[in-house]
Backbone:
């Protein structure tokens, strides 16, 4: 029930439905993750794909919560959190167990660190105790890290814990626009702090290795990019205010702005490329971006660190492209990104993201692949092996969990990934693709 005397906020956007381009972006994104983690010198700024995933996830979650309230005059918190748990935890927890078993059997020197990582992961505090950028200030603490991809999962889990309640309160009090404006202000401030070389809200400790872990994590917290999630929430509010069909001026300009945004976002993720730096050097031109990304400037280095501006640029550039995909489904870029192999890889992206470091460890460390896989073919070979290895987990765990997740659906219809149409829950439960695409009630993805 709305607060007495205040009409609740109502989204006027159409139902999300099927957006194939979202899965296509996820597919490209997980390939960038696999390539970057196999050969980090390729382009450290591939890390910007996490900002894309964060914007997408926050946009979808917020949009679908607004849609649920409009349809049902409430948001079912129990079902929301049950869907999140069923969707995300089984594969992640199974991966942690697999890591522990393999470590006990073959690499016991890593066990102490792995157990600490696991405790941080299951309590959604990984990015605090093992923050992004830790290797730059305390490299000794990263020697045996095994599941460092869980930092982004922790950031998103914290977002999920807050967003449903926040949106419900803001809808009832009609504060959604104020929420969007407030988050945009905070996100702008965080981006400006990174630009100034401040990686967190508190200074980096004088002795990072022996500092309080929480203080160390907070000193690098802006490198976890919570601002990209904030931009996604703001984009969802913008979308909720745009009627269907879009006003003529939006129909005319949004595809143009969207394609520019898409190009800028992906170009941004190439700017810290060592290859580009070497190419510029060969022709005698100075390269303006330092192809490394410590959290703070290194004395004696000249040039602009990508990390100071790249995360913000990537997130903001991708926002109009995502809005165009959601509201202009015949957009040519949307159709191109809806290529079926990309969409399938996008649907696998969460499984691949969670498990890829274990596959890499087995191949490179336990089987000695690091000695014979050359730089030229290392990334594609590891990526292909990882995708094939993850197929049984995708079908045996993730697809089964999607069926369980349907028990907690808030709507009577969900998306059929075969047809791109909404179907009754009972039909979806018997399908080989039991919901869970871009229009599913949670916008799942797999970041890096």
Residues:
């Amino acid at each position: 029930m709305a607060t007495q005397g205040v009409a609740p906020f109502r989204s006027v956007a159409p139902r999300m439905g099927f957006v194939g381009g979202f899965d296509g972006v996820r597919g490209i994104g997980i390939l960038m993750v696999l390539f970057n983690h196999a050969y980090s010198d390729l382009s450290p700024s591939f890390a910007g794909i996490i900002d894309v995933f964060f914007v997408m996830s926050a946009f979808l979650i917020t949009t679908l919560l607004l849609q649920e309230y409009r349809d049902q005059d409430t948001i079912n918190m129990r079902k929301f959190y049950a869907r999140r748990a069923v969707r995300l935890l089984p594969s992640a927890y199974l991966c942690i167990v697999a890591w522990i078993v393999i470590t006990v059997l073959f690499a016991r020197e890593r066990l102490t660190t792995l157990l600490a990582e696991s405790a941080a992961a299951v309590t959604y505090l990984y990015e605090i105790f093992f923050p992004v950028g830790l290797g730059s200030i305390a490299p000794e603490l990263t020697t045996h890290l095994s599941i460092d991809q869980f930092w982004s999962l922790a950031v998103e889990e914290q977002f999920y814990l807050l967003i449903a309640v926040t949106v419900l309160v803001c809808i009832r009090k009609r504060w959604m626009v104020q929420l969007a404006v407030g988050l945009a202000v905070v996100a702008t401030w965080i981006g400006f702090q990174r630009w100034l070389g401040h990686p967190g809200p508190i200074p980096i400790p004088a002795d990072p290795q022996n500092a309080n872990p929480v203080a160390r994590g907070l000193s690098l917290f802006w490198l976890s990019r919570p601002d990209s999630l904030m931009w996604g929430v703001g984009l969802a509010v913008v979308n909720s205010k745009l009627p269907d069909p879009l006003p003529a001026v939006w129909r005319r300009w949004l595809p143009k702005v969207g394609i520019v945004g898409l190009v800028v976002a992906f170009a941004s993720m190439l700017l810290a490329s060592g290859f580009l730096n070497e190419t510029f050097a060969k022709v005698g031109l100075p390269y303006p971006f330092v192809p490394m990304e410590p959290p703070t400037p290194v004395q004696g280095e000249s040039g602009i660190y990508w990390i100071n501006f790249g995360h913000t640029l990537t997130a903001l550039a991708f926002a109009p492209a995502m809005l165009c995909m959601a509201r202009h489904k015949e957009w040519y870029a949307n159709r191109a990104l809806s290529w079926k192999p990309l969409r399938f890889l996008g649907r696998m992206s969460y499984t691949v993201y969670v498990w890829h470091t274990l596959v890499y460890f087995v191949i490179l460390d336990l089987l000695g692949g690091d000695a014979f896989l050359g730089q030229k073919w290392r990334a594609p070979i590891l990526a292909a092996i990882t995708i094939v290895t993850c197929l049984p987990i995708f079908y045996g765990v993730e697809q089964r969990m999607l069926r369980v997740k349907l028990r907690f659906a808030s709507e009577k219809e969900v998306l059929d990934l075969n047809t791109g149409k909404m179907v009754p829950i009972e039909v979806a439960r018997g399908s080989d693709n039991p919901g869970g695409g871009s229009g599913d009630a949670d916008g799942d993805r797999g970041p890096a």
